[in-house]
């Protein structure tokens, strides 16, 4: 798998959110390399834990900004956050089961999970915040 590369297309136009996204992409790439390098299941689990932890923190950050600036789509955006975290936690649980290892489909799921949210919901949030901040 190739690395995700930070590009202007992933920018939502709000520096503090873009910085968070850059960090999430960096952790995703660490996980991607760890899988390619055949790192231990424990290391992969720890890296996925870090990605999920940082994502939860980032979502809290976005939700605070939505509240502060009275984002009209806040409820739907927050619901998407909850769905994404739930699916990531389900993946974590799956990968803890004996005999289950990280596969390319899991990496693709995480890549799409990350980029789709940035390009859609976060793009709309960024457009709104750029106008009101």
From TrEMBL:
CDD domains: Hemerythrin. It comes from the Bacteria. This is Hemerythrin-like domain-containing protein. The keyword Membrane does not apply. Residues 13-125 form the Hemerythrin-like domain. GO terms for molecular function: metal ion binding; oxygen carrier activity. Belongs to the hemerythrin family. PROSITE patterns: HEMERYTHRINS. InterPro entries: Haemerythrin_Fe_BS, Hemerythrin, Hemerythrin-like, Hemerythrin-like_sf, Hemerythrin_metal-bd. Keywords: Iron, Metal-binding, Oxygen transport, Transport.
């Amino acid at each position: 798998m190739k690395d995700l590369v930070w590009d202007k297309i992933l920018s939502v136009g709000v520096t503090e959110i873009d910085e968070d996204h850059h960090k999430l992409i960096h952790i995703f790439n660490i996980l991607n390399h760890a899988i390619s390098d055949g790192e231990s299941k424990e290391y992969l689990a720890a890296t996925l834990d870090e990605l999920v932890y940082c994502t939860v923190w980032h979502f809290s950050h976005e939700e605070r900004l939505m509240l502060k600036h009275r984002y009209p789509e806040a409820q739907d955006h927050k619901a998407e956050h909850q769905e994404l975290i739930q699916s990531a936690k389900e993946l974590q649980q799956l990968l803890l089961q004996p005999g289950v290892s990280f596969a390319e489909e899991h990496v693709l799921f995480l890549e799409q999970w990350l980029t789709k949210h940035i390009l859609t919901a976060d793009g709309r949030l960024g457009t709104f915040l750029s106008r009101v901040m």
